[in-house]
Amino acid sequence: MNNRKKLIFLILMKIPENKFIVTSIILFLITFICNNSNSLFAQANPEDKDIFEKLKKLNVPNDSLQIYFNQFKEGKFNIDSVKTETKDTIPPNFPLISHGRTFVLKNDCYRTIRKEDIQIHIYNSLFDILKYNLPSYSLSLDGIGTYRHLALFGSSPADVSFQFNNRPYKDLEFGSLNIEQLSPEFMEQAEILVGSDAVILSDNSSGASINLQEIRYNSKKPYTRLWYSQGGYDLISADGIYSQNFVKNWNFTFGFRTMTSSGRYTNSWLQDWNVRTLLRWNPSDYTSISFVENFTNHGYGTNGGVDAYNSSDIYDNVSARVKFENLNERVFRHDLTLTYTSLLDRDSSSTLSGAIYFSNSDWDNYRSKELYVNSIDTVNTINHISQYMGATAKYEQDFFQTFQLRVGGDVEYDILPKTLYFDELKDLSFSAFAHGLFTPIENIKLSGGLRFTTYAGKTALAFGAKSVLSFSKELELIGDLSFSDRFPTPVEGLNLSNEKHFFGLAELRHKTQPINISVGAFYRNIDNPILTKTEIIDSHKVYQSYNTDKRNVFGLYANLDFFIFGSIGISIWGQSYLSNTNDTNDYRFPNFIAGIRTYYEIIAGKSLLRLGTSFGFMGEMKGEQYTKATYENILSQGYYYVPYYPQLDANFRLSVAWPFLD
Question: Which residue of 103, 116, 369, 417 pairs with 107 in a disulfide if CB–CB is 3.0 to 4.6 A?
Fold first, then answer.
């Protein structure tokens, strides 16, 4: 380190006339030294440093370095014996931990929800998990399994995109996805991107981009996990997983999920069945290839909510009348995904990843004759098939641990027939993007880029930038600005104009062991927002979409988590919104919403007990068992998020998750 300081001093003493070039060179040298000097002393423990040095001599990639280190510390891997063993006795290759992630090179997302993080949560679906972890407003209809979504930072469902291993997951008709179709037991982690990262790395995502990384098991012995939940209104849910490395470097994982419920109100039933299969091959420690087939059969009653004008009490399950007693839908969908991830350099500084995918959705919609839209519409059951297929590719390069560059693109072909409810779509779309991350010094990160996309004869350019300033390890400030377009969806009408979004976000985070605080503010401006109105056609009410002038949403949010007396956990959160359409309050969100969660925590060995607003137990019994019980809405108060879909009244819920031979 002293030699480096002397070198800098000599350079400063011999500054030539061109000060701009020299200043740039000096800044680069200082940046390089600062970044690399930290890595020299990353391992303060001499023994751990020696272990890492031995692993590097085995050409272990940085992506899997920590895995090998943990295996050695647990006595499952002998570094010295590998040098003398024959090839046949070398341990199997480890699957890349970055396989299927948004960022193969190490980078931070706005939020990351790992499979280990959700075990203490009370959940039946991914919606419950996202709602708990994000500063969002719930767009929840009347029960589990029905259409439930999230409004992140004043966005609509069509502004939130979903991916699986970075390939798009969507319903072509609506430009969004019912979160209830996704199984949380099949994800290694959920990565949530917002702002500039979201609009650059995915389409139609001014609200957020949520990528689900495929589950990652690597077990020589058979691994099984069972999850079961039971609650009010005949709710029964179950999920099962089996996984095993059946041949060296090959893994097979199978899972299923089922959810059924009669629902609280008339025509709010649920029938869900999901089966998924994963086959993964690790030809080396630097490459992972996987194939996933995900089948979903999801049906539920779409009652339109309670008819407030013809119900004496909208919260009375017996007397309340719903709008549609004979309207429901079911989708049978197959999603096939072939994912490839490779580290091109031994130091993991250069990577290549991508996916080839195909999705087929077979829809059945049943409605009574009162819902026919015109005189020639006389069919009770409407069936249609939508398909989309495509490929994604992304190259990532790290330069001197100071600058990361990502470039890539997608190509996709969409097929959707014309019906009474949406336009025909036969389109070959393209997109290309570039995203950079610059770390001039350790406590400053600057990122940004742009994305160009074509869709249904229209084009769009998205771009933005973000800065992250770390005042210390515990305190950081995030600032983000982005511009993007949202294409109209087939159900809205492809002839409409693009929505044009400007989104600004500022968030301050403070994280320590006893206390976590996050405070944020956002502003969203939308030109040409797409709204919906009703028209009367042949004496029937029909919904039509149209463009209006502008919409503005301003919001504040805060979350505080802390412990008192060492064992009492308290979480307080609040959100405030002001939403205007054409300079008039549209009341899309409440002006203020807040809540508090409390629990008493007891830790004994490896077991954890929490009593409070939620109850949970974690312990080991041939693996780990997680048992969670809640009595929800204990006062049986009537409330709703979306008019008029009253949420469940007082009900008891019990869930159990139990992995075997972990």
Answer: 103
Tens of pLDDT, residues 428-473: 999 999 999 999 998 999 999 999 999 999 999 999 999 999 998 8
Closest C-alpha to 237, from 316, 85, 136, 127: 127
DSSP SS3 for 369: helix
Cα 314–Cα 318–Cα 323 angle in degrees, nearest 5: 55
Mean residue pLDDT of the chain comes to 84
Residue 26 scores a pLDDT above 70: no
pTM, to two decimals: 0.82
CA atoms within 13 A on the CB side of 483: 7
Rounded-to-integer distance, Cα 181 and Cα 158, Å: 16
Cα separation, 223 vs 622, in Å, equals 11
Q: Residue 658: what pLDDT?
A: 54
- Pairing verdict, β 160-164 and 208-214: parallel
Residues 6 or more apart from 416 whose CB is under 8 A from it? 172, 173, 384, 386, 387, 422, 423, 424, 425, 426, 490
8 Å CB contact between 657 and 227: yes
For 322-360, the pLDDT digits (tens) are: 999 999 999 999 999 999 999 998 778 999 999 999 999
Q: Report phi then psi at 95, rounded to 5.
A: -65, 140
In angstroms, rounded to a whole number, what is the distance separating the alpha carbons of residues 438 and 192? 21
- Count the neighbouring beta carbons within 10 Å of the beta carbon of residue 181: 22
| Long-range contacts, stretch 410-418, CB < 8 angstroms, 24+ apart | 410/168, 410/203, 412/168, 412/388, 413/388, 413/389, 414/172, 414/386, 414/387, 414/388, 415/386, 415/387, 415/388, 416/172, 416/173, 416/384, 416/386, 416/387, 416/490, 417/384, 417/385, 417/386
Distance CA 302, CA 484 (A): 32
Output DSSP code: residue 201.
H
Residues 192-207 have pLDDT tens digits of 999 999 999 998 799 9
CA 309 to chain centroid: 38
Q: How large is the angle between the packed helices 46-57 and 62-73, nearest 10 degrees?
A: 120
Query: What residues contact residue 650 under an 8 Å CB cut-off, 6+ apart?
Result: 232, 631, 632, 633, 634, 635, 636
Q: What is the mean pLDDT of residues 398-427?
A: 94
654 backbone dihedrals φ, ψ, rounded to 5°: -130, 135
